[in-house]
Amino acid sequence: MNLSKTNPLSLTDLVASTPDLPTLPAAVTAVIRETESPTASAQSVSRLLQQDPSLAARILRLSNSAYYSLSRQIMEIPEAVVVLGMRTVRNLAMIAGSYPWLVRELKGYELGPQELWAHSLAVATGAQCVARRARQNDAEAFSAGLFHNIGKVAMNVWLETRVESLYSFAGEERNFDDIEREVLGFDHAEVGAHLAESWNLPKPLVRAIRFHHRPEEANDRLADCVHIADYLAMSAGLNKGWDGLRYRVDPGAFVRMGFELESLESLMAEFLGSLESHGKLFEERAA
User: What are 249-258's pLDDT values in tens digits?
Assistant: First the structure.
């Protein structure tokens, strides 16, 4: 039974009526947009971050983690931007701003606490590796990878009430986003793109979130980066929950990015090494 027909909600209505919707601090969205500007500077980024003291404190904590192995402690945001670089501080701002809701348990997706977070960081890391190898914008790729599944946080509460319907698809060989559309009328990529747009994130990020499962429809290299990174995370066992075994890989994404089959082994090794390094970033809590 198509429950979306018995309970028709527009995408706007679904998001508006979702309790405890994920939000992104205004300072983070401002930093993302500022770092995309050709006139951005360490000073302009620092000023934006300092508008949110709690966010700034979390960034400083991350800056002083074992991951960076700095010889001295960073005490202020302007110093962090100068020492670590604008792009790194941008990534830290996104991590600090999204961590509180990415670590949630999502029962509707059969994801325990921290599992969505582990997957999201893995895809961000993988997208960064893919972008660097393909000479694309790796900071933009990290952003798109980190936020690619934000729609799941919003859709979770609705899927929790339709678990029996999900079980009815257990024996079918179908992509999970197809099942989401049949059950709710929308998939998490659509909802995530709607959220990203409401946060006023740059259009390339919105597009990559929307098409990360169907990059052939976007014909966009950023969507390809995230799709390939999602595949890397899945291959590494970091794609748990209902949709962990229902992932359709688009071979065209690898072709469009110029990757030969022989290069995948070295790409996977690079990804796993970078992911292991990122683990050190959270030897101290991110939030």
Answer: 888 999 999 8
